[in-house]
Structures are given as structure tokens and as C-alpha cells.
Design goal:
Layout: E1 9-10, E2 29-32, E3 46-47, E4 55-56, E5 60-68, H1 69-74, H2 76-89, E6 92-100, H3 105-114, E7 121-125, H4 129-134, H5 156-159, E8 163-164, E9 167-168, E10 171-176, E11 178-183, H6 184-189, H7 199-211, H8 228-237, E12 243-246, E13 249-252, H9 257-273, H10 288-292, E14 298-302, H11 305-309, E15 328-331, E16 344-345, E17 347-352, H12 360-370, H13 373-381, H14 392-395, H15 402-407, E18 410-412, H16 420-425, H17 428-438, H18 443-458
Parallel strand pairs: 5-6, 5-7, 16-18
Antiparallel strand pairs: 1-18, 2-6, 3-4, 7-17, 8-9, 10-17, 11-14, 11-15, 12-13
């Protein structure tokens, strides 16, 4: 959406906390060849499918798919199943699934694009899509959207990350959101509500927890100062936004009255409940480790965290403490109004077909299987949020998962601007938050400065 700001997307969502594992080695490529039972090559014939166009069953060649290592370690059976189903349609086409790493996959992709040797299917982080869509790197799937399973019920917040100017350039794969992961024993001992109706109830509760702390460095709710994803939840929750676009011109909105209201409430929460440094982010250290080390009573974390916090410790010191079993729970971060969750950033992955692919039909056929209902159910079991609203009620029947479902009912996404990545690289939002929390600038001063920088970057300055 080059000229349309991605507004808050109301989506019902769910994230599961179970995990799967694989014994295969990392860094390799999995090639699936036709099974003997398919009968191999036959005379040329075309057969229609129930969810896609007619296929040439005698077609032969190789379909190259790039997925992240997550698929290899977490749900390899789903990859195998999709390929097996594909080979029933195309028995003579070899599927070469190559597993990539988040740290360097874009560098490799850029090189392959330049050489005209890009894969036929590629997994992209949803925040990575915009630049490549604007640059014309992906095939337009708009006309074929209806052929993908349950596409009318795709999660809006995730699906919109693959849309530009109303055209579809990718399909949603899976998503994830966050909730408050907390020490239930400490919150209950302090008389703090574990079913807060509003964010003010959360502040009241964590103040009570903080008052009982004997360690001056203990945080009732550990919130590092540069946690901009969380801070922006409050901005959108108050009716503000990071930036909007009108006819291709971007205008930052952090200094607006609504955005400042949201930031003021976030600052109130941080100052009342957190002893975390104002100049660090949520990964230094990983927030959940403060729960494991008994340095906090809550953290704003992902659905897999409760299981990790109560799991075994490991040699890297990033595991959990089994003694905390039965003492870790999760609750939705509520919004400003009772009964409304605070909007959450909906992260996740999309799957796209590079425009250079000579096998678009094959790629679409494989994708239809890989993001189908059976596959998405498997992704839920592996700890992910499915790509459609259709599956959410079924998955949400587990009460342990409900906080993460409710947390993602309302979502927001970063501005769909080509230069948004520059805003992130320059740490504009992080520095703004640190400036406010440290007292170096008022909220008005800090947001004006951030808006000026964002305007310049998003509009090509």
C-alpha cells in the first residue's frame, strides 16, 4: 500500500505455546522426488483441481522453495506433506526445499535476484515485504487470490503486509502476538488483579506487586526503555499512529494529541512498575530471563515463553527454571476502554513468488497445499498463530492460549513505506523513548523531533 496507511486491523487471533522438534541437521536442502506410487511420467494430460487451475500432469522440472530454519526444526512434517500432495498433481516435478537463516537470507536473495536465479517460492518476514513489493520483485497474485484456501478469511493484519496499492504480492503463512506473562503467585499475594479490564487496572496491580518487592532492582513488570513495539501498542490504542500517507506523501503522527496520550500512558506504566534500564531493548537481556532469574514478576512476551520459563535450563543459560512450574501464567494487556485489548503488533511471515520464477503455476499449487487448513492446524500446534480467522475458535478452546488470542484481536502494522527500514535502522523510535523516560526531553519535544526525522526518511530525504 504505497499510498494507504495500514490502519489498525481488527482480527481475531490465537497463538499456541507447544513446540515441535526435528532431528535433521540445519543448513541443508531437502529435495522431494516423486514417489513410485504416483506412476512416474505418463502421457501428456491436463486435469483440473478443486482449488486451482488445470495442471499438466506430465510436466517435469524442479520447483525451488526457500523456507526459514523454523520450518525445518519446528514443523518439517508439514513441509513433507505439502510436497507429497504437490507430487500427486505433478509427479515428475522435483521440489527442492532449501532452508535459510533470517540473518542472511535477504543478502542471498538479492544476489540471486541480480543473477536471475531466485527461488520459485520464498518466505519473507512480514516487515520485509514492502521494499521488495515496491521494487517489483514479486509476482502479482491478485487474480489468483481466490484460489488459495480460505483467502476470504485471512488475518487482515498479516495479509495486508503482502498488499501494495490494492494488489496481492504474497500469501500469509503464520503470525504471532504477545501478552503479559507473569508470576501468578506474586500477583495474587499482592492482591493484584489477574483479569484486568483496562490498562489502568494493570498499573494498579503492578504497583501493588512492586510495593511488596524487597529488592530495589526488582520489576513488577519488566519493560526496557527501547521496547518500541510495546510503546506503539499504546499509541495505536489511544487512536494515534506512527505515520499516515496521502497520495504518496508520508506524514509522521507521533506528535498528535492521540499519539502523545498513548505514550504518556506507556510512560506511566514503565515508571510505576519497571526498573529496567531506559537505554536497552527487549532482547538485551531477553525479557523472559528476568522471570527465570526472579528479577521480575511480569514481562510482555510471546506465546512460547511460559513453557520456556518453566522448562529446563540449558548450557547457554537461556532456559528456564522447573521450580516455577505452576507459578507462570499469561493475561492479555487490556486497552484504554474496558473489554478492549491493547492493539498489538502482529508479526509473522508471508510467502511470495519472485517475479523471475518460470514456474508460477507450480509455485501456487505448492502454496495452496502448504497454507491449507491441515497445515495451518499443524502450525498452531507448533506455537504459531494461523493465517485465517476460521481456525481460531477451534484453537482458542484451550484456556492457556486465550490470553494470546485476545491480545491479537486488534493489531497494527508498520507504515507500508519503502524507506521504513531506515527508520528502524536509525533507532528513531527507540531513541525517542529513551529521551522521554530519561527526562532529556518532554514527550512533546521528543515526538516533534522523531516526526521530523521520520518525515524526512519516509519521503526520501
Amino acid at each position: 500500500m504505497k499510498s494507504t496507511h495500514m490502519a489498525i486491523a481488527a482480527v481475531t487471533a490465537l497463538i499456541a505455546v507447544a513446540s515441535c522438534s526435528s532431528t535433521t541437521k540445519t543448513g541443508s536442502s531437502t529435495s522431494t522426488t516423486p514417489d513410485a506410487s504416483t506412476g512416474g511420467s505418463t502421457a501428456s494430460s491436463s486435469q483440473p483441481t478443486s482449488s486451482g487451475p488445470a495442471v499438466d500432469t506430465s510436466a517435469s522440472g524442479t520447483l525451488t522453495v526457500w523456507l526459514q530454519q523454523d520450518a525445518k526444526t519446528g514443523w518439517p512434517d508439514l513441509v513433507t506433506a505439502a510436497t507429497a500432495g504437490f507430487n500427486k498433481q505433478y509427479p515428475n516435478v522435483k521440489v527442492d526445499v532449501q532452508f535459510q537463516n533470517w540473518t542472511d537470507h535477504l543478502t542471498k536473495f538479492d544476489t540471486q535476484l541480480a543473477a536471475g536465479a531466485a527461488p520459485d517460492v520464498i518466505e519473507m518476514g512480514n516487515t520485509e515485504m514492502t521494499k521488495y513489493m515496491i521494487d517489483g520483485a514479486f509476482a502479482d497474485l491478485t487474480a489468483d487470490k481466490a484460489s488459495f484456501p480460505d483467502s476470504e478469511h485471512w488475518l487482515t493484519g498479516l495479509a495486508n503486509s503482502a498488499v501494495l496499492d490494492g494488489k496481492v504480492f504474497g500469501v500469509p503463512y503464520y503470525a504471532g502476538s504477545r501478552a503479559i506473562v507473569y508470576r501468578s503467585d506474586l500477583w495474587q499475594a499482592a492482591g493484584a488483579s489477574t483479569t484486568p479490564a483496562t490498562v489502568d487496572d494493570v498499573i494498579t496491580g503492578c504497583k501493588a506487586v512492586q510495593a511488596k518487592a524487597t529488592d530495589r532492582n526488582f520489576s513488577a513488570f519488566y519493560i526496557p526503555g527501547k521496547y518500541w513495539y510495546m510503546a506503539m501498542n499504546f499509541v495505536y490504542g489511544a487512536g494515534g499512529s506512527i505515520a499516515t500517507s496521502d497520495n504518496g506523501k508520508w506524514a509522521a503522527q507521533l506528535n498528535s494529541a492521540d499519539s502523545q496520550k498513548g505514550l504518556a500512558k506507556w510512560v506511566e506504566l514503565v515508571k510505576a512498575c519497571s526498573k529496567a534500564p531506559v537505554d536497552t531493548d527487549e532482547s538485551h537481556p531477553n525479557e523472559y530471563l528476568t522471570l527465570v532469574k526472579k528479577q521480575s514478576a511480569a514481562a510482555y512476551e510471546a506465546g512460547w515463553v511460559p513453557g520456556t520459563v518453566t522448562g529446563p535450563q540449558n548450557s547457554q543459560g537461556t532456559g528456564g527454571d522447573p521450580a516455577l512450574a505452576g507459578k507462570i501464567a499469561a493475561m492479555t494487556l487490556p486497552g484504554f476502554a474496558a473489554g478492549t485489548p491493547m492493539p498489538a503488533f502482529l508479526g509473522g511471515s508471508d510467502l511470495a513468488i519472485p517475479v523471475s520464477s518460470k514456474h508460477k503455476d507450480w509455485a501456487e499449487a505448492w502454496l495452496r497445499l502448504f497454507i491449507g487448513s491441515d497445515s495451518e492446524k499443524g502450525l498452531i500446534k507448533a506455537g504459531n498463530l494461523p493465517n485465517t480467522t476460521t481456525l481460531l475458535d477451534q484453537a482458542g478452546q484451550d484456556p492457556k492460549l486465550k490470553p494470546f488470542a485476545d491480545a491479537a484481536k486488534t493489531s497494527w502494522f508498520t507504515p507500508a513505506a519503502k524507506n521504513w527500514v531506515s527508520v528502524e535502522k536509525q533507532n528513531i523510535l527507540q531513541d525517542m523513548l529513551t529521551s522521554i523516560l530519561s527526562g532529556q526531553q518532554s514527550t512533546d519535544q521528543a515526538t516533534k523531533s522523531a516526526d521530523s526525522k521520520i518525515d524526512s526518511l519516509l519521503n526520501g530525504g
